[in-house]
Design brief:
The structure is a single chain. This protein is an all-alpha fold. It has one domain: MetI-like fold (Orthogonal Bundle). Helices cover 72% and strands 1% of the residues. α3 packs parallel to α8. The longest helix is centred in the first third of the chain and has 33 residues. 27% of the residues are buried.
Length: 282
């Protein structure tokens, strides 16, 4: 009964993955005339000699840690707020999902205009708040550009985290909170003794989804900065290797090695999350 599904997954997922692993052991390009040579693990050794790859790895980890942390904290706070009973709660919940529902390409371009140094509303706002000097190009300044990208990612993806955590809040029986109130527990005690432990599995699942997505971030970075001013991530650098260099030289095998590295990195994070989640549940 599941054989057709296994065959489909093998064609659309396992075969490309195997082909990427296979190509990573060769040196070749997409331009006709470039000889295909077996180089073994040489492409993987080159990764850690490539300063641009190392910088892209650092940017990816920095982006992932900061953005996922902020999205998790804000997601918990928003989920708790919209979980309460108040007028127009359904409207607020629907409006909360608007940033997440907008396609990333559209929202990234929108925020790119808003961060424009001449007519961008966010540039004017940051100037008035004293964050930047007047006329400072946010998306053209190292440091500021990455924080602007993180700001956009948090704006867009926090509703996703809040939605998952809200689902976890809704399955907590109200009787538990009522018993805690009778025992004299205040709001903070109820949150740390009841709410947080019971939604920990939900937060763990949300963290897995968001971390895996953040580690392969491409669209928001590429649209807003093209990876310039020290914002290049692994996926953006890999696009440069596979789409630009592979047509001019023997870079396709090296790009495949980068893809394999991203896959392994994501797998390690997923395994660590799942193991830590199981320990907490046990």
């Amino acid at each position: 009964m599941i054989l057709p599904t296994i065959l489909v997954i093998s064609v659309v997922a396992f075969f490309p993955l195997f082909k990427t692993f296979y190509d990573s052991f060769y040196s070749f390009g997409l331009r006709p005339g470039i000889e295909r040579r077996f180089v073994g693990l040489q492409n993987y050794f080159r990764l850690f000699e490539d300063t641009r790859f190392i910088m892209a790895l650092k940017n990816t980890v920095f982006f992932t840690v900061i953005s996922v942390s902020l999205e998790t904290v804000l997601g918990v706070l928003i989920a708790i707020v919209v979980h309460q009973r108040f007028a127009l709660r359904g409207v607020v919940r629907a409006a909360m999902l608007v940033p997440w529902a907008i396609p990333t390409a559209i929202s990234s371009q929108m925020w790119r205009w808003m961060f424009h140094d001449q007519f961008g509303i966010m540039s004017r706002l940051w100037e008035k708040l004293g964050i930047i000097e007047p006329g400072t190009p946010i998306l053209g300044t190292p440091g500021l550009a990455m924080w602007a990208i993180i700001f956009v990612d948090v704006w867009k993806t926090t509703p996703f985290m809040a939605l998952l955590i809200l689902a976890g809040l809704q399955v907590i029986p109200e009787d538990i909170y009522e018993a805690a109130r009778i025992d004299g527990a205040n709001t903070i005690q109820r949150f740390f003794r009841i709410t947080l432990p019971l939604i920990t599995p939900t937060i763990g699942v949300a963290l897995i989804f968001r971390t895996l997505d953040a580690l392969r971030v491409f669209d928001v970075v590429y649209i807003m900065t093209r990876g310039a001013v020290n914002t290049e991530t692994l996926a953006v650098y890999n696009r440069h290797v596979l789409m630009d260099r592979a047509f001019t030289g023997a870079w396709f095998g090296y790009g495949s090695a980068i893809s394999v590295f991203i896959f392994v990195l994501i797998s390690i994070f997923a395994i660590l999350y799942i193991k830590s989640l199981r320990l907490k549940l046990d």
